[in-house]
Amino acid sequence: MNRTTQSLIAAVAALAAVTGFAVANAPDGSGDDGAKAAARLPVERSSLLCPVPSSSDLAETSYTAFTPKGEGDGEAGKAELLPATRELTDAPKGGDNKEAKKAAKPFLTPKTPGKPVTGEESGGSAPALLGTADGKLAPGWTVQQTTKYAVGSGRGVQGTNCTAPDTDFWFPGASTDKDRSDYVHLTNPDDSAAVVDIELYGKGGALKTEVGEAIQVQPHSSVPVLLSTLSPKEQTNLTMHVTARSGRVAAAVQSSDDKLGGDWLPASADPASRVVLPGIPKDATSVRLVAFAPGADDADLKVQLASPTGSISPAGHANLHVKSGMTTAVDLGDVTKGEAGSLILTPTEDAAPVVAALRVTRGKGADQETAFIPATNAIGTRASVADNRAKGSTLSLVAPGKTGRVKVTASEGSEGGSATSKTYSVKGGTTLGIKAPVPSGLKGTYALTVEPVSGGEVYGSRMLESPEDGVPMFTVQTLPDDKGTVSVPEAEQDLTVLQK
Asked: For the segment 233-290, what is each residue's pLDDT rounded down to a tens digit?
């Protein structure tokens, strides 16, 4: 192959790599002179990593893998979830892990776009999972991990979307409070070790910690790190910054509270001057907003609640000042007042980037349960969420600007049922809370896919409820774009003629 052709292919691969480590084919040259506009092509390969779900013998974990129907469905494809090696935080750094060398049997192997595949694990021995999908199963591939605890610290439903590996993560809403046990799970999908740094920021700024530097995560393995071991000082509200100085990892925080249950805290969207946090449940009894400004400038923000009828400023919290490098927390109480809502943060004057998350509580007294809603990106081209049941799935959609219309598709059931779709209009400045559509003749679980049809940007989240013994157990997952396509510029001319 001619060097020029090799360079073109290398450039295309590099472009695909920076968009979530997905790979796309280079488009065929048309032979026309002049640069061509970038084309959106389905990705050819996707990677997702699932953290260790639990160390409790009483835990029951379900996994649901799903790829929405779309372009390229007729092409060959393969997807599988393999167990990673479970490491201990006190294991010697750089030590040989013999278990990692053993051949692993796939845990889940989805076959067909449009139909979810499920699996279950009981107890505390379930490992982290390393997942890859290629061909027709790669575009929009999503995996939901849902764990239920009947009793104990963190009891309730803990759910998370398995995430793509990256090198930079922000977690506003973490804690080292005496009632909290927050672990950050670091999972390395690659053949070489990753080296990770963890920084913590409280209300007074950065916390001093040496043990958070140069944490090694061996190949194809996962490391849980207890946040309270990184700093001796208890802090109710923290922002954690995770960076990989070499390699890449997936990072997620598992938070357990002795009194208020627990859930997974996903990473916030990248720092931005406007922040959208969609899907506060209508019956939320307490909502805490945690924000952090990572840049050099303070952030002055206007706080608005997008309700079903319009946007209002929460009483006493119309504005929020976030000092640079310091974590700010505000308790908003039962801000939704019985109606579904979303928070929208916008700059009042000069724009400064922030990250943010909500800790949401439902229930009262001994029957309380919590979940987290991080700042998220717009649905974009398409977003999916798996592990929906016949009862207990609620969608929240918010249009912070212009009115937007979206199509919501309920997939086939994992064990039977026909897909169905419905279109919804989300008025600008409002939140639309809807009971998720259900496939006809549903058996098993199903996935929901949301696609914009027209109008302004729409953001969304899904709440999954599974009440037990009077406790309103629930978890919330946001709906960012699934990155099922990648932008690939066409070559200025057809270089295939240069091949020998």
From this structure: 899 999 999 999 999 999 999 999 988 999 999 999 999 999 999 999 999 999 999 9
Which residue(s) pair with 104 in the sheet?
Answer: none
Per the CB < 8 A criterion, the answer to whether 137 and 434 are in contact is no
Contact 190, 243 (CB under 8 A): no
DSSP for 108-157, please give it: B---STTS-EEEEEESS-PPPEEEEEEETT-TT-EEEEEEEESSSTT-EE
Contact (CB, 8 A) for 77 and 138: yes
Are the C-beta atoms of residues 139 and 71 closer than 8 Å to each other?
Answer: yes
The CA distance from 138 to 223, in Å, is: 27
Q: Is the entire prediction scored with pTM above 0.85?
A: yes
Contacts 24+ apart (CB under 8 A), 53-57: 53/121, 53/126, 53/145, 53/147, 53/158, 54/123, 54/124, 54/126, 54/147, 54/149, 54/158, 55/124, 56/123, 56/124, 56/149, 56/152, 57/123, 57/124
d(CA 276, CA 379): 12
* Integer Cα distance of 249 and 189 in angstroms: 7
Return mean pLDDT, the chain.
88
Q: Residue 104's pLDDT is what?
A: 67
Q: Is 11 left (phi over 0), alpha (psi -120 to 50) or beta?
A: alpha
Helices and strands, number each (H, E), in the chain: 1, 38
Cα 115 to chain centroid distance, Å, stands at: 21
The Cα 145–Cα 449 span in angstroms is: 17
**Are 159 and 263 within 8 A, CB to CB?**
yes
Tokens standing for residue 440: 């006809």
